[in-house]
Specification:
CATH class: Alpha Beta
CATH superfamily: Phosphohistidine domain
CATH architecture: 3-Layer(bba) Sandwich
Order of helices and strands: EEEEHEHEHEE
Oligomer: single chain
Shape: globular
Distance between the termini: 16 Å
CATH topology: Glucose Oxidase, domain 1
Structural class: alpha/beta
Number of helices: 3
Number of strands: 8
Strand order of the largest sheet: 1-8-7-3-4-5-6-2
Strand content: 15-25%
Helix content: 10-25%
């Protein structure tokens, strides 16, 4: 994606929500929420992850991949309950386990970030950029 000529792009909606905005934290490696993210603080705690120490709270979290554990949905649910959730998730591929955590949080009546599909190759250029995502799945670069 050439950011100089393309200031917006459309993404597939995986879990709808309202319009949102935030700085994009585009992870450079897949992550497991179970053991990789502190559910109380929203910080990446995996000692081997390149973004260790970064806070996911309020970010547009771009996930180039996930490392599965069925407990990941529970960890994401705890992150949401603690008020440390990202503003939105951008997933390279739909992750049913993480999406389940979002659905359960929504059923509990907690503010839940929307989720979208965006290929990992298109996530990298968004790193550090301020993004606005419409409810219809259009990302605008600020």
């Amino acid at each position: 994606m050439d950011l100089k000529t393309r200031l917006e792009l459309s993404v597939e909606i995986l879990l709808p929500g309202g319009a949102t905005e935030g700085q994009c934290l585009a992870l450079s490696a897949p992550i497991s929420f179970w053991g990789g993210v502190d559910p109380k603080t929203g910080r990446i705690i995996d000692a081997r992850h390149p973004e260790r120490g970064r806070d996911i709270a309020g970010t547009i979290l771009a996930l180039p991949g996930t490392i599965g554990s069925s407990s990941a949905s529970a960890v994401l649910l705890e992150v949401i309950h603690a008020g440390r959730a990202p503003a939105a998730l951008l997933m390279d591929a739909p992750d049913a386990i993480l999406l389940l955590g979002l659905v359960v949080a929504r059923e509990m009546g907690w503010p839940t970030p929307p989720a979208f599909r965006l290929p990992g190759s298109e996530q990298k250029p968004l790193a550090g950029r301020r993004l606005t995502i419409s409810a219809g799945g259009v990302i605008r670069l600020s």
